Amino acid sequence: MVNISEAAYISGNILSGKVAMVTGASRGIGAAAARLFAEQGASVMLVARTESELRKVTEDITTAGGNADYVAADLSSANGIEQAVQATIERFGRLDAAFNNAGIAVHMSSLLDETEEAFDQVQAVNYKGIWLAMKAQIKAMLETAGSGAIVNTSSVGSLKGNAGLGSYAASKRGVNSLTQTAAIEYGPAGIRINAIAPGTTLTEMIQQWVAVDPDIIEKISAMTPLRRAAEPMEIAQAAAWLLSDNASFITGVILPVDGGLTA
Protein backbone atom coordinates (compact mmCIF):
# COMPACT_ATOMS: atom_id res chain seq x y z
CA MET A 1 0.00 0.00 0.00
CA VAL A 2 1.38 3.43 -0.99
CA ASN A 3 1.49 5.87 1.91
CA ILE A 4 -0.01 9.15 0.70
CA SER A 5 0.73 12.06 2.99
CA GLU A 6 -1.67 14.98 3.28
CA ALA A 7 1.25 17.33 2.69
CA ALA A 8 1.66 15.97 -0.83
CA TYR A 9 -1.67 17.52 -1.80
CA ILE A 10 -1.00 20.99 -0.46
CA SER A 11 2.72 21.45 -1.00
CA GLY A 12 4.04 23.26 -4.04
CA ASN A 13 6.83 20.68 -4.19
CA ILE A 14 4.79 17.79 -5.54
CA LEU A 15 7.87 15.58 -6.07
CA SER A 16 9.53 16.41 -2.76
CA GLY A 17 11.80 13.63 -1.51
CA LYS A 18 11.50 11.50 -4.65
CA VAL A 19 14.34 10.19 -6.79
CA ALA A 20 13.44 10.60 -10.45
CA MET A 21 15.13 9.43 -13.63
CA VAL A 22 14.55 11.34 -16.89
CA THR A 23 15.62 9.88 -20.23
CA GLY A 24 16.09 12.07 -23.25
CA ALA A 25 16.97 14.78 -20.74
CA SER A 26 19.48 16.74 -22.78
CA ARG A 27 16.99 18.89 -24.70
CA GLY A 28 13.33 19.67 -25.38
CA ILE A 29 10.68 18.10 -23.18
CA GLY A 30 13.22 15.98 -21.30
CA ALA A 31 15.38 18.94 -20.30
CA ALA A 32 12.31 20.92 -19.27
CA ALA A 33 11.12 17.97 -17.18
CA ALA A 34 14.48 17.55 -15.45
CA ARG A 35 14.47 21.23 -14.46
CA LEU A 36 10.85 21.08 -13.33
CA PHE A 37 11.24 17.88 -11.32
CA ALA A 38 14.18 19.39 -9.45
CA GLU A 39 12.19 22.58 -8.79
CA GLN A 40 9.41 20.36 -7.44
CA GLY A 41 11.77 18.76 -4.91
CA ALA A 42 13.03 15.64 -6.64
CA SER A 43 16.61 14.43 -6.89
CA VAL A 44 17.01 13.91 -10.63
CA MET A 45 19.24 11.67 -12.74
CA LEU A 46 19.42 12.94 -16.32
CA VAL A 47 20.08 10.37 -19.05
CA ALA A 48 20.74 10.82 -22.77
CA ARG A 49 23.43 10.18 -25.37
CA THR A 50 25.13 13.59 -25.54
CA GLU A 51 27.27 14.28 -22.48
CA SER A 52 27.96 17.95 -23.22
CA GLU A 53 24.25 18.80 -23.35
CA LEU A 54 23.51 16.70 -20.25
CA ARG A 55 26.25 18.48 -18.35
CA LYS A 56 24.85 21.90 -19.26
CA VAL A 57 21.30 21.09 -18.12
CA THR A 58 22.60 19.47 -14.92
CA GLU A 59 24.73 22.51 -14.14
CA ASP A 60 21.71 24.77 -14.67
CA ILE A 61 19.73 22.69 -12.17
CA THR A 62 22.42 22.59 -9.49
CA THR A 63 23.19 26.30 -9.90
CA ALA A 64 19.50 26.98 -9.22
CA GLY A 65 19.75 24.94 -6.02
CA GLY A 66 18.42 21.62 -7.29
CA ASN A 67 19.86 18.15 -6.75
CA ALA A 68 20.84 16.47 -10.01
CA ASP A 69 23.42 14.33 -11.74
CA TYR A 70 23.73 12.83 -15.20
CA VAL A 71 24.89 9.74 -17.05
CA ALA A 72 25.44 9.39 -20.80
CA ALA A 73 23.96 6.16 -22.15
CA ASP A 74 22.65 4.46 -25.27
CA LEU A 75 18.97 4.09 -24.43
CA SER A 76 18.33 1.56 -27.19
CA SER A 77 20.74 -0.82 -25.46
CA ALA A 78 19.89 -3.06 -22.50
CA ASN A 79 23.35 -2.50 -21.04
CA GLY A 80 23.02 1.26 -21.48
CA ILE A 81 19.71 1.58 -19.65
CA GLU A 82 20.71 -0.87 -16.92
CA GLN A 83 23.90 1.10 -16.28
CA ALA A 84 21.89 4.31 -16.08
CA VAL A 85 19.46 2.82 -13.56
CA GLN A 86 22.34 1.45 -11.50
CA ALA A 87 24.05 4.84 -11.56
CA THR A 88 20.85 6.39 -10.23
CA ILE A 89 20.71 3.97 -7.32
CA GLU A 90 24.40 4.39 -6.54
CA ARG A 91 24.06 8.18 -6.57
CA PHE A 92 20.71 8.62 -4.81
CA GLY A 93 20.02 5.30 -3.07
CA ARG A 94 16.79 4.27 -4.79
CA LEU A 95 14.41 4.95 -7.68
CA ASP A 96 10.89 6.33 -7.10
CA ALA A 97 9.92 7.81 -10.46
CA ALA A 98 10.92 7.62 -14.11
CA PHE A 99 10.02 9.72 -17.13
CA ASN A 100 10.89 7.81 -20.29
CA ASN A 101 11.04 10.61 -22.80
CA ALA A 102 13.88 9.54 -25.11
CA GLY A 103 12.76 9.19 -28.70
CA ILE A 104 13.54 10.00 -32.30
CA ALA A 105 11.50 11.18 -35.25
CA VAL A 106 11.67 10.00 -38.82
CA HIS A 107 11.59 12.06 -41.97
CA MET A 108 8.13 12.20 -43.45
CA SER A 109 7.72 9.54 -46.11
CA SER A 110 5.12 7.13 -47.40
CA LEU A 111 5.20 3.46 -46.47
CA LEU A 112 6.72 2.60 -49.85
CA ASP A 113 9.41 5.27 -49.62
CA GLU A 114 10.59 4.64 -46.06
CA THR A 115 13.75 2.57 -45.76
CA GLU A 116 14.05 -0.55 -43.63
CA GLU A 117 16.97 1.09 -41.82
CA ALA A 118 14.82 4.07 -40.79
CA PHE A 119 11.99 1.77 -39.68
CA ASP A 120 14.31 -0.35 -37.55
CA GLN A 121 15.93 2.69 -35.94
CA VAL A 122 12.69 4.32 -34.82
CA GLN A 123 11.37 1.05 -33.40
CA ALA A 124 14.66 0.39 -31.57
CA VAL A 125 14.60 3.74 -29.78
CA ASN A 126 10.92 4.67 -29.43
CA TYR A 127 9.45 1.22 -28.79
CA LYS A 128 12.14 -1.23 -27.70
CA GLY A 129 13.89 1.51 -25.72
CA ILE A 130 10.77 2.05 -23.59
CA TRP A 131 10.45 -1.71 -23.06
CA LEU A 132 14.07 -1.96 -21.92
CA ALA A 133 13.72 1.09 -19.68
CA MET A 134 10.62 -0.17 -17.90
CA LYS A 135 12.17 -3.60 -17.31
CA ALA A 136 15.17 -2.06 -15.57
CA GLN A 137 13.21 0.65 -13.74
CA ILE A 138 10.46 -1.58 -12.38
CA LYS A 139 13.03 -4.04 -11.08
CA ALA A 140 14.93 -1.20 -9.38
CA MET A 141 11.76 0.27 -7.86
CA LEU A 142 10.73 -3.07 -6.41
CA GLU A 143 14.20 -3.64 -4.96
CA THR A 144 14.73 -0.14 -3.54
CA ALA A 145 11.70 2.15 -3.01
CA GLY A 146 9.20 -0.71 -2.97
CA SER A 147 6.75 1.23 -5.14
CA GLY A 148 6.91 3.96 -7.75
CA ALA A 149 5.55 5.68 -10.83
CA ILE A 150 6.56 5.73 -14.48
CA VAL A 151 5.46 8.04 -17.28
CA ASN A 152 6.26 7.20 -20.90
CA THR A 153 6.18 9.69 -23.75
CA SER A 154 3.83 8.65 -26.52
CA SER A 155 2.28 11.01 -29.10
CA VAL A 156 -1.11 12.08 -30.38
CA GLY A 157 0.15 10.45 -33.55
CA SER A 158 -0.34 7.10 -31.81
CA LEU A 159 -4.09 7.60 -31.53
CA LYS A 160 -4.93 7.50 -35.25
CA GLY A 161 -3.37 6.91 -38.64
CA ASN A 162 -0.72 9.41 -39.75
CA ALA A 163 0.12 9.72 -43.43
CA GLY A 164 3.86 10.16 -43.85
CA LEU A 165 4.66 9.12 -40.28
CA GLY A 166 3.61 5.49 -40.27
CA SER A 167 6.56 3.92 -38.44
CA TYR A 168 6.79 6.76 -35.92
CA ALA A 169 3.08 6.54 -35.08
CA ALA A 170 3.29 2.75 -34.88
CA SER A 171 6.22 2.92 -32.45
CA LYS A 172 4.24 5.26 -30.21
CA ARG A 173 1.10 3.10 -30.40
CA GLY A 174 3.30 0.24 -29.24
CA VAL A 175 4.33 2.40 -26.27
CA ASN A 176 0.65 2.80 -25.37
CA SER A 177 0.16 -0.96 -25.30
CA LEU A 178 3.32 -1.56 -23.24
CA THR A 179 2.24 1.15 -20.80
CA GLN A 180 -1.22 -0.28 -20.21
CA THR A 181 0.00 -3.87 -19.96
CA ALA A 182 2.71 -2.93 -17.46
CA ALA A 183 0.16 -0.93 -15.45
CA ILE A 184 -1.99 -4.05 -15.10
CA GLU A 185 0.94 -6.30 -14.25
CA TYR A 186 2.62 -4.07 -11.66
CA GLY A 187 -0.28 -2.13 -10.17
CA PRO A 188 -0.65 -4.79 -7.45
CA ALA A 189 2.99 -4.14 -6.51
CA GLY A 190 2.32 -0.42 -6.05
CA ILE A 191 3.83 0.84 -9.30
CA ARG A 192 1.71 3.21 -11.41
CA ILE A 193 2.49 3.43 -15.12
CA ASN A 194 0.98 6.01 -17.46
CA ALA A 195 1.84 7.74 -20.72
CA ILE A 196 1.41 11.24 -22.06
CA ALA A 197 0.57 11.87 -25.70
CA PRO A 198 1.83 15.35 -26.60
CA GLY A 199 0.46 17.27 -29.52
CA THR A 200 2.53 19.75 -31.52
CA THR A 201 5.37 20.88 -29.26
CA LEU A 202 8.10 23.41 -30.02
CA THR A 203 11.11 21.09 -29.90
CA GLU A 204 13.94 20.20 -32.28
CA MET A 205 11.91 17.20 -33.43
CA ILE A 206 9.13 19.33 -34.85
CA GLN A 207 11.74 21.46 -36.59
CA GLN A 208 12.75 18.38 -38.61
CA TRP A 209 9.20 18.23 -39.94
CA VAL A 210 9.16 21.99 -40.55
CA ALA A 211 12.14 21.47 -42.85
CA VAL A 212 9.90 19.26 -45.02
CA ASP A 213 6.70 21.29 -44.62
CA PRO A 214 7.41 24.89 -43.47
CA ASP A 215 3.74 25.49 -42.65
CA ILE A 216 3.16 22.34 -40.59
CA ILE A 217 2.97 24.10 -37.21
CA GLU A 218 0.42 26.58 -38.53
CA LYS A 219 -1.59 23.81 -40.19
CA ILE A 220 -1.80 21.72 -37.03
CA SER A 221 -2.46 24.77 -34.86
CA ALA A 222 -5.42 25.64 -37.06
CA MET A 223 -6.93 22.24 -36.18
CA THR A 224 -6.14 22.61 -32.47
CA PRO A 225 -8.82 24.23 -30.29
CA LEU A 226 -6.21 26.26 -28.37
CA ARG A 227 -4.82 27.39 -31.76
CA ARG A 228 -1.13 27.01 -30.89
CA ALA A 229 1.69 24.58 -30.24
CA ALA A 230 2.84 23.67 -26.73
CA GLU A 231 6.00 24.77 -25.00
CA PRO A 232 8.10 21.85 -23.68
CA MET A 233 7.43 22.91 -20.08
CA GLU A 234 3.69 22.46 -20.58
CA ILE A 235 4.26 18.81 -21.46
CA ALA A 236 6.66 18.40 -18.54
CA GLN A 237 4.02 19.72 -16.15
CA ALA A 238 1.69 16.87 -17.10
CA ALA A 239 4.44 14.30 -16.55
CA ALA A 240 5.31 15.78 -13.15
CA TRP A 241 1.71 15.57 -12.01
CA LEU A 242 1.32 11.96 -13.11
CA LEU A 243 4.52 11.02 -11.26
CA SER A 244 3.40 12.79 -8.09
CA ASP A 245 1.24 11.42 -5.29
CA ASN A 246 -1.48 13.81 -6.46
CA ALA A 247 -2.15 11.23 -9.22
CA SER A 248 -2.13 8.34 -6.74
CA PHE A 249 -5.20 6.58 -8.19
CA ILE A 250 -4.28 6.98 -11.86
CA THR A 251 -2.60 4.19 -13.80
CA GLY A 252 -2.84 2.74 -17.29
CA VAL A 253 -3.84 6.10 -18.79
CA ILE A 254 -2.68 7.52 -22.13
CA LEU A 255 -3.18 11.24 -21.46
CA PRO A 256 -3.39 13.56 -24.47
CA VAL A 257 -1.59 16.84 -23.79
CA ASP A 258 -2.51 18.38 -27.09
CA GLY A 259 -4.48 21.60 -26.75
CA GLY A 260 -7.66 19.72 -27.63
CA LEU A 261 -6.42 18.31 -30.95
CA THR A 262 -7.94 14.90 -30.25
CA ALA A 263 -11.19 16.26 -28.79
Topology:
Elements lengths: L6 H4 L8 E5 L4 H12 L3 E6 L2 H13 L3 E6 L5 H15 L4 E4 L15 H28 L4 E6 L12 H21 L4 E8 L5 H9 L3 H7 L9 H12 L10 E4 L6
Parallel strand pairs: 1-2, 1-4, 2-3, 4-5, 5-6, 6-7
Helix pairs in contact: 2-3, 2-9, 4-5, 5-6
Care to give the gist of this entry?
By secondary structure, the protein is an alpha/beta fold.
Report on the structure:
Residues 1-11 have low confidence and may be disordered. Helix 2 (28-39) packs across helix 9, helix 4 runs parallel beside helix 5 (116-143) and helix 5 (116-143) runs parallel beside helix 6. The two termini are 35 Å apart. The chain has a seven-stranded parallel beta sheet with strand order 3-2-1-4-5-6-7, with helices on both faces. It is built from nine helices and seven strands. Helices cover 46% and strands 15% of the residues. With 263 residues, it is an alpha/beta fold. The chain has a single domain (15-256), classed as 3-Layer(aba) Sandwich (Rossmann fold). The protein is globular, with a radius of gyration of 17 Å.
Notable traits:
single chain, 263 residues, alpha/beta, Rossmann fold, 7-stranded parallel beta sheet, 9 helices, disordered N terminus
